[in-house]
Specification:
805 residues; alpha+beta; Aldehyde Oxidoreductase, domain 3; Aldehyde Oxidoreductase, domain 4; 3 domains; eight-stranded mixed beta sheet; five-stranded mixed beta sheet; 20 helices; 28% helix
C-alpha cells in the first residue's frame, strides 16, 4: 500500500457536504416540548436597568416563559476570568448594560416567531450613562468606568523586560517611533451560533448540543457558572460545523444562558443566532493601539524593541481573554533576531462587544506594527526593505532559536523562504517597473512581510497575565494535550474518534490517512468520528481546533493511538505465527514474515481472535482492539522571569504583494499575492492550500474591508452585511502559494500548524504595499481597514498641502 501522508488526498468529508447530507446544529432533532428562544438586547451602550415589565409578553399564546437577569442571578456564579481584576460577567445583564446587544431578557415560546413577537411587548426602563469606546480615552483619569467594583477600565496590565533594553537604546544609532491602530473585526462564519439545551431535574444536570468550537478549558468555567459538578454538564458537538475561525469559542455564555433558561421554564430550549445578533453580540478580535520604538543601527540591524500594546477587550474581559494579548508573547519579535525587548501590555474595557478568539488571534494585532516598522526603518535609513529584512532574519544555523521572551522556534530556514518569495514575485524587476510607472503618474507599490506562525498553544501562556507571585499561589499550567481513540471491530474495520472539534478543516481526512499508513488498512475501511461528547469522548482541557493545533497535536494523538493498536496487533500475529514481532511486516492487510513470506496471517483473523477467541491471545493480553492515546509536547509554565514558550511549534510565512492605486478614486487593486509557507511536513497539500487561501481572505478582510464600527456614543453601526463589508470572490486577488518543508523535531510526523498565517500577515503586507505606492505623496496609512475613501483623503490632503505651500 502506498503511503498517504504527504499526498494530495481528496477529503472524505466532501461526499456528505456536497450532497447536502451534512449534519449541522439546526439539523439535529429537538427533544419533545422544546421551546424556541429569542433574546431582547440592549439598545444602549451604557445604562442602568431601572425596571423590566414583561407581563404583556406572558399573555401571548404560546409563550412559555420570560427570563431576566434578576431571575438568573441567584442560580449562577459570575464567570471566572483569567485576571485578578474582579470583573463580574454573567450571560445576561443584571443591573446594568455595558454594550449595544447585551442580553437583557429571554423569551421562550412555542416557536421563534411567537418569541420574537413577545420581545416587542417587554418594557424596559433605562437610565443612560456616559459611554466610552476609545481605547486610550478609557485609560484616562476621569473616564467613565464600566465596572465600579474594579475601579478603573484596566482589566489587566503587565510590563516585561527581556535582555538589556536600556543598553540597546543607548547604543542605537537611531530610535524610530510609531503609533498604529488595529481594528475590531469579526469572522462571519456561514453558520452562526446554535444551541439546544435541556435541564434534567431528577439528576440536576444539563445536556447541551452546540456548535461549540472549544477549547474545552471553557467546560469547567461553564460548570462553575451553573453551580454544578462538571460531570453534570454534558456538551455534545455535531460532526459538522459551518465554519468557526475561532469565533465559536464565544458560544459559551449562550450555552450557560440557554441552560439556565431551560431550567427556569421547565423544558428544553433551542436558540439559533441570526446574523445581526452575530455581528453585534457574539465575539470579535481585539482592536489594539500599539506604540513601538525600535533601536536601530545604521546598517539596518534592530537591536532592541519597546512595544506598548493596548487591547480593547470590550465591555467584559471574558475567557479565554486576555488570550489576544499574550498568545504571541513568545514570538513578539517575530522572525527577527532581536535580543532586547520591553513589552507594556494593557487589556482595557470599553462599551463594545466583548472579544475572544478569531483566526490568528493576537497575531494580526502583533505583526501589523512589527512588519510596518521594518519598512519604516528601511525608509528612514534609505535602504531597500528586503535588505532590512535580510539583516534581521533569524539564520538557519541558529535553530532551535530562543527568543528574548522565551519562545523556542523548533526549526526553519527563513532566509530560503524569503529569497523564494522575492524570486516568485520578481521583486527587483518590479522595482524597475515601479520607477518607470511613477514617471507616468501611476502608483505601483510592493510590500513584504515575514512572520512566524505559532501553533499548538501552551496552556501556560495565558498565566503570563499574572505576576510570578500570583502564579505561585495557583495551579501551574503547561503543555497542550490532545487525545484520540482507535478501535477495530471483529471484521477488521476501524473506527477513529478524535476530539479536535473540526469546523471544516479536514481533520477526518488526515486522521484516516495517518491510520491507513500505520495499520495498512485501506481508507474505505476507516471511519472517523468527529462528534465530541464530553461524557464519552477522550479529551483534555486543551482539546479543540484553536491555535492551528491539529497538525502538531491532534495528528500526533492519532499517530500514537494507531501505533498502540499496531503494537498489539503485531504481538498477537507474532504469537499466532510463532515468530518475533520484528520479523513481521504488514502487506495487503496481512502480517507476513520477512524471513519466510509463506508464513502469514490475515489482519481480519488476528482482530477477530481478539473479539471471538480471547483465550487464544498471548498471556496477560486484554481482549478487543480499543486504544486511546494522549499526546502533549514538553512546554513548561512561565518561569519567575516571565519567560514562556507559548506554543509547541513555529512555522514561517513570507509574503510579497504588489498593488496599483488609482489616485482619482483611491481604489486599491492587488496585482499579485505571493506567499511561501514552511509548516514542516505537509500532511495533505491539497487541504493545506485550501486552508492558506481561507486565512489569506480573512486577513484581506481585516486589511481592506472589515470593521465593527461604533460611533463616539457607543452606538453600533455595522449590524448587517450592508454596512459590514466582507471580501467576496471578485475581490480575491491572484494568489501563488509555495512551500518549503523543515520538519519539526518535536512532532512524530514533523508537522506544524498552518491556516492562520496569512490572516496574520495579510494586513501588514498589504499596508506595506499601499504605503510604498503612496510614497510620491509623502503620506502613510497606519490604521486599518485601508478603504478607498481613506486613501483618497490622504492623497487629496497631500495635494492641498503642496498647493498651499
Amino acid at each position: 500500500m502506498s503511503q498517504l501522508i504527504g499526498k494530495k488526498v481528496t477529503r472524505i468529508e466532501d461526499a456528505r457536504l456536497l450532497t447536502g447530507q451534512g449534519k449541522y446544529i439546526d439539523d439535529i432533532g429537538t427533544p419533545p416540548n422544546t421551546a424556541h428562544v429569542a433574546i431582547l438586547r440592549s439598545p444602549y451602550p451604557h445604562a442602568k436597568i431601572v425596571s423590566i415589565d414583561y407581563s404583556e409578553a406572558l399573555e401571548i399564546p404560546g409563550v412559555k416563559g420570560v427570563v431576566t437577569g434578576k431571575d438568573i442571578e441567584p442560580l449562577l456564579n459570575p464567570f471566572s476570568v483569567g485576571v485578578t481584576a474582579p470583573v463580574q460577567y454573567y450571560p445576561m445583564a443584571i443591573d446594568k448594560v455595558r454594550y449595544v446587544g447585551e442580553p437583557v431578557a429571554v423569551v421562550a415560546a412555542k416557536n421563534r416567531y411567537i418569541a420574537e413577537d413577545a420581545l416587542e411587548k417587554i418594557r424596559v426602563k433605562y437610565e443612560t450613562l456616559e459611554p466610552i469606546v476609545d481605547i486610550e480615552r478609557a485609560l484616562e483619569e476621569g473616564a467613565p468606568v464600566l465596572h465600579e467594583n474594579v475601579g478603573s477600565n484596566i482589566a489587566n496590565h503587565r510590563t516585561f523586560y527581556y535582555g538589556e533594553v536600556n543598553k540597546a537604546f543607548q547604543e542605537a544609532d537611531r530610535i524610530i517611533k510609531k503609533r498604529f491602530e488595529f481594528p475590531k473585526y469579526s469572522a462571519t462564519p456561514v453558520e452562526t451560533y446554535g444551541i439546544i439545551a435541556q435541564y434534567e431535574e431528577s439528576t440536576k444536570s444539563y445536556t447541551v448540543r452546540a456548535n461549540f468550537h472549544g477549547p474545552f478549558v471553557l467546560h469547567s468555567i461553564m460548570a462553575g457558572a451553573l453551580k454544578v459538578p462538571s460531570n453534570r454538564l454534558r456538551i455534545i458537538i455535531p460532526k459538522d460545523i459551518g465554519g468557526s475561525y475561532g469565533i465559536k469559542a464565544g458560544t459559551f455564555p449562550y450555552i450557560v444562558l440557554c441552560s439556565i433558561v431551560s431550567r427556569l421554564v421547565g423544558c428544553p430550549v433551542k436558540w439559533i443566532e441570526d446574523r445581526q445578533e452575530h455581528l453585534s453580540a457574539s465575539s470579535s478580535c481585539t482592536d489594539r493601539v500599539t506604540y513601538i520604538e525600535a533601536a536601530v543601527k545604521e546598517d539596518g540591524k534592530v537591536i532592541g524593541l519597546k512595544m506598548k500594546m493596548i487591547d480593547n477587550v470590550g465591555a467584559y474581559i471574558r475567557a479565554p481573554e486576555p488570550a489576544c494579548l499574550y498568545r504571541t508573547h513568545a514570538n513578539t519579535t517575530g522572525a527577527y533576531d532581536i535580543p532586547n525587548l520591553m513589552i507594556d501590555a494593557y487589556a482595557v474595557m470599553t462599551n463594545k462587544l466583548p472579544t475572544g478568539l478569531i483566526r490568528g488571534y493576537g497575531g494580526q494585532e502583533l505583526y501589523f506594527p512589527l512588519e510596518r516598522i521594518m519598512q519604516i526603518i528601511a525608509d528612514e535609513l534609505d535602504m531597500d526593505p528586503a535588505d532590512v529584512i535580510r539583516r534581521n532574519l533569524i539564520k538557519k544555523e541558529q535553530f532551535p532559536y530562543k527568543t528574548a521572551s522565551g519562545g523556542v522556534y523548533d526549526s526553519g530556514d527563513y532566509e530560503k523562504a524569503f529569497e523564494l518569495v522575492l524570486k516568485l514575485g520578481k521583486y527587483e524587476e518590479f522595482r524597475k517597473k515601479q520607477i518607470e510607472a511613477r514617471k507616468k503618474g501611476k502608483l505601483l507599490g510592493v510590500g513584504l512581510a515575514c512572520i512566524v506562525e505559532p501553533s499548538g498553544s501552551n496552556m501556560g501562556y495565558i498565566t503570563v497575565a499574572l505576576t510570578p507571585e500570583e502564579r505561585r499561589a495557583g495551579l501551574p499550567k503547561s503543555g497542550c494535550a490532545e487525545a484520540a481513540t482507535i478501535s477495530m471491530d471483529p471484521l477488521g474495520n476501524v473506527n477513529v474518534r478524535i476530539s479536535t472539534t473540526p469546523t471544516g478543516q479536514g481533520h477526518e481526512t488526515v486522521a484516516s490517512q495517518i491510520v491507513s499508513d500505520i495499520l495498512g488498512v485501506p481508507r474505505e475501511k476507516i471511519n472517523v468520528i468527529a462528534e465530541l461528547d464530553t461524557a464519552t469522548s477522550a479529551w483534555t482541557i486543551a482539546s479543540g481546533s484553536y491555535s492551528s493545533r491539529f497538525a502538531s497535536l491532534g495528528s500526533s494523538a492519532v499517530y500514537y493511538a494507531a501505533q498502540k493498536v499496531k503494537k498489539k496487533l503485531l504481538k498477537m500475529a507474532a504469537h499466532f505465527l510463532q515468530t518475533d514481532e520484528e520479523d513481521l511486516t504488514i502487506e495487503n492487510e496481512k502480517f507476513v514474515s520477512k524471513q519466510d513470506p509463506s508464513k502469514s496471517i490475515s489482519m481480519k483473523r488476528v482482530v477477530g481472535s481478539a473479539h471471538w477467541n480471547p483465550l487464544s491471545l498471548p498471556e496477560g493480553m486484554e481482549p478487543g482492539i480499543y486504544e486511546t492515546a494522549y499526546y502533549t509536547a514538553q512546554v513548561e509554565p512561565p518561569d519567575d522571569q516571565d519567560l514562556i514558550n507559548s506554543s509547541v511549534t513555529y512555522g514561517f510565512v513570507a509574503d510579497l504583494v504588489t498593488v496599483e492605486i488609482d489616485p482619482e478614486t483611491g481604489e486599491i487593486h492587488i496585482l499579485d499575492y505571493f506567499t511561501v509557507h514552511d509548516a514542516g511536513k505537509l500532511l495533505n497539500p491539497l487541504i493545506v492550500d485550501g486552508q492558506i487561501l481561507g486565512g489569506l481572505v480573512h486577513g484581506l478582510g481585516g486589511a481592506m474591508y472589515e470593521e465593527l464600527v461604533y460611533d463616539e456614543k457607543g452606538q453600533f453601526l455595522t449590524g448587517s452585511f450592508m454596512d459590514y463589508l466582507c471580501p467576496t470572490a471578485p475581490e480575491i486577488p491572484k494568489v501563488t502559494i509555495k512551500h518549503i518543508e523543515t520538519p519539526s523535531p518535536l512532532t512524530p510526523l514533523g508537522a506544524k500548524g498552518l491556516g492562520e498565517g496569512n490572516s496574520m500577515s495579510a494586513p501588514a503586507v498589504i499596508t506595506n504595499a499601499v504605503n510604498d505606492a503612496l510614497k510620491p505623496y509623502g503620506v502613510t496609512i497606519d490604521s486599518l481597514p485601508i478603504t478607498p475613501n481613506k486613501v483618497w483623503n490622504m492623497i487629496h490632503q497631500s495635494t492641498k498641502q503642496e498647493v498651499s505651500s
